Amino acid sequence: MDAVLLRVDDVAARLNESPWSVRQRIRRGEIDAIRTGRGRRGAYRVEESALAAFLDARRTSARSAS
Predict the structure, then answer these.
(1) Which residues pair with 34 in a beta bridge?
(2) Among 43, 40, 2, 3, which Cα is nearest to 26's?
(3) Distance between CA atoms of residues 20 and 23, nearest Å
(4) Quick count: other Cβ atoms within 10 Å of Cβ 27?
(5) pTM for this model (two decimals)
(6) What is the C-alpha to C-alpha distance for residues 48 and 14, in angstroms, rounded to an integer?
């Protein structure tokens, strides 16, 4: 089965964050992403499963913090 790839804007909408914040999370390694294209014009794509893993990790961290 092919992985569903989301654009940064799609991820931002799901997280209720700005695209800039999502790109920062990707650069820091918080969200796994694939870089498409070359050079500065390349774009990030996030697999739906990677977004789910990020959300699960946040949910787990929130539970353990309380």
Answers:
(1) 45
(2) 43
(3) 5
(4) 11
(5) 0.81
(6) 11
Residue ranges per domain, the chain?
5-65
For domain 5-65, give the fold: Multidrug-efflux Transporter Regulator; Chain: A; Domain 2 (1.10.1660)
The secondary structure element, H or E, covering residue 6 is strand 5-7
What six digits make up the tokens of 47?
A: 């697999």
Tokens coding 20: 């800039």
pLDDT by residue, tens only, the chain of 66 residues: 678 999 999 999 999 999 999 999 999 999 999 998 877 777 999 999 999 999 998 886 556 655
Q: Quick one: pLDDT at residue 48? A: 96
User: Reduced to 3 states, what is the DSSP secondary structure of residue 1?
Assistant: coil
Q: Which element (helix H / strand E) includes 24?
A: helix 19-27
C-beta atoms surrounding 21 within 10 Å: 14
